[in-house]
Amino acid sequence: MNDGSRFDRLPPTADDRTVEGRATREEAVGWWVERFGLDPECFEGHTFWEKGSGKIWAFAGDVDSPAEVEGLGMTFLRTRQEHWKPTTDAVQRFGRGAVRNVVVLDRGDARAFLRGEDTDPDWDGDWGYLIAAHEIAGSVEPIGVGLYLYGELRSQMPKGRQREL
User: Fold this and answer.
1) How far apart are CA 68 and CA 107, in angstroms?
2) Could you name the CATH architecture of 101-161?
3) Burial code of 78-105, b = ≥16 C-beta within 10 A, e = fewer?
4) CB-based contacts of 29, cutoff 8 Å, min separation 6
5) Rounded to whole angstroms, how far apart are CA atoms 150 and 123?
6) Where are the domains of the chain?
7) What is the pLDDT along the chain (165 residues), one digit of tens a residue?
């Protein structure tokens, strides 16, 4: 049974699943690998947990399951909806290794994105959730999650993390 008041470790594979609808570690990591081209090794040493319905957390370590704590690591992925959604924290932590579905924004679009505004970047790739990034000091750094639909990148920057620059 899914208990929204505690963290339950994701099962390794579908064959290990005991809660209907719960994502597996294999599915969660596989989603990041398929969507963003990340190396699955970047998730080694992390355990994955569900708290609530489809709120997946990543923890750089291990504890006994279930864990009745308020927080455990970082929010990582939203599942149990039609399209899985990565979190800003996870994109900023793991997104540097992404080789697919990364839209690199120019300075103006990056600032607008950080303010929570929609932009119209030059992008001819996939629709859906993208990693919005910006080049800083010769390196491409992930800013957050954008939703690209109909030629528009919709900033998914959480209100509390939006910035006026």
Assistant:
1) 43
2) Roll (2.30)
3) bbeeeebebbbbbbbbbbbebeebbbbb
4) 40, 43, 48
5) 11
6) 8-95, 101-161
7) 666 678 899 999 999 999 888 999 999 999 999 999 999 999 999 999 999 888 999 999 998 888 878 788 999 999 988 899 999 999 999 999 999 999 999 999 999 999 999 999 999 999 999 999 999 999 999 999 999 999 999 999 999 888 887
The residue among 143, 31, 88 whose CA lies nearest residue 48 is: 31
| Amino acid identity, position 101 | N
CB atoms closer than 10 angstroms to residue 9: 19
Angle at 127 between CA 43 and CA 86, to 5 degrees: 30
